């Protein structure tokens, strides 16, 4: 279907109120800008529309518009503003971590800074605060901060990110998230291998899903990977033969889908973790 047809189809959601397109100028502007090829202006209108307390049908339309806008170049054109000079990299990561006994939901803000960051806040519009704390920063400037005790997935919608750093003005950014993956595509096959269901790319403009594999020494209190690998070509379903002693280790396998909002990367990660008994006989 051509882009015009796809955009027009967004209006045909069953039971939708047809008057909303006329009454809400920000919704109309978002569609019009996208039709005209002005992705960044469309994204600005999407942000405005999320601030107008959209109905369920309107939310579905906004999600569809965002997904369509991402198809241009995986989201790079959504936002033409650049990161501040003291912030080299920035990622927002939604994770579902499945171990043998429970499922954990995570939200992390990760990046690279040249200055000391004193606080990061991340809240869903209008006032649902998910993160509000000082990040952990290592000697190289890489930082991370996590939400505490999430009881539901971080859903589609409008979020505000604020980063406060020493000697710098507060940096604020609107973030629009699309729906998280509905299906778990990664699971354990047995104690030493895993299955990966067929995973479609977000769209043709985005990179293929990648697989992250990390092996930890259970006696290492620093909890740094003893061995790790990340690949987006061949996705393995078991550990390769490694030059490590036989014994018990902790294995973390993650399937990563990525897109962008300008210079900010948005990652959806499905992870499975468990302890394993490694031996040459099983690999």
From TrEMBL:
InterPro entries: DUF2861 (IPR021290). Residues 1-18 form the signal peptide. Keywords: Signal. This is DUF2861 domain-containing protein.
């Amino acid at each position: 279907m051509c882009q015009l047809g796809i955009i027009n189809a967004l209006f045909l959601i069953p039971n939708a109120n047809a008057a909303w397109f006329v009454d809400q100028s920000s919704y109309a502007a978002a569609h019009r800008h996208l039709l005209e090829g002005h992705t960044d202006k469309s994204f600005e209108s999407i942000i405005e529309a999320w601030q107008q307390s959209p109905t369920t049908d309107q939310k579905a339309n906004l999600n569809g518009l965002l997904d369509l806008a991402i198809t241009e170049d995986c989201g790079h054109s959504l936002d033409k503003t650049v990161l501040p000079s003291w912030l080299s990299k920035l990622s927002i990561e939604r994770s579902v971590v499945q171990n043998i006994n429970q499922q954990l939901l995570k939200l992390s803000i990760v990046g690279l800074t040249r200055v000391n960051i004193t606080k990061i806040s991340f809240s869903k519009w209008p006032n649902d605060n998910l993160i509000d704390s000082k990040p952990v920063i290592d000697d190289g400037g890489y930082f991370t901060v996590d939400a505490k005790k999430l009881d539901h997935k971080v859903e589609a919608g409008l979020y505000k990110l604020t980063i406060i750093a020493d000697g710098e003005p507060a940096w604020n950014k609107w973030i629009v998230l699309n729906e998280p993956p509905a299906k778990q595509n990664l699971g354990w096959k047995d104690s030493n291998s895993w299955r990966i269901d067929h995973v479609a790319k977000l769209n043709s403009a985005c990179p293929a899903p990648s697989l992250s594999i990390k092996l930890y020494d259970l006696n290492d209190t620093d909890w740094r990977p003893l061995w790790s690998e990340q690949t987006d070509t061949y996705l393995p379903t078991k550990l390769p033969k490694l030059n490590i002693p036989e014994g018990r280790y902790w294995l973390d396998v993650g399937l990563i889908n990525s897109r962008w909002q300008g210079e900010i990367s948005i990652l959806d990660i499905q992870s499975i973790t468990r302890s394993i008994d490694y031996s040459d006989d099983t690999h």
